[in-house]
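We treat protein structure as text, and this decision shapes the records that our systems exchange. The tokens are whole numbers drawn from a learned vocabulary of local backbone shapes. One such record is reproduced below, unchanged from the form in which we store it:
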Amino acid sequence: MQFFKKHFSREELAIIGSYSSFFGFLLIATILAYRHIFDYILNLMEQKLPVFLIDISFIGMIIIFAVLFLVIPSIIIIRDIRAEFHSKNSKLAWVLIFLISIYDFALISQFIYTYLKVNL
């Protein structure tokens, strides 16, 4: 913790903490969303519906999921990253880039895990 206090102001630490909490909350929400998406698709398969209806449902749910959990948070943080680079505060910008990349990696890992868990 001393490292952060030494290199970042209180305001910058608050920004880092806010984004960390925000991404943590979103990751918990995505775990629940993935579970519901795959359970819904499995229920459609058990009902012996036509494959094209299942595919359309799955694609639609993934698009909605991507907008809610990828596009909207990315727009918010990219705006702040650009502002930090323009204000010559590249340390904070690089920390925010690190946070968004960890979040994206966790989303992809959770998707693969849930997909394999449901399909195996």
Q: What stands out?
A: The chain has a mean pLDDT of 82. DSSP finds four helices and no strands in the chain.
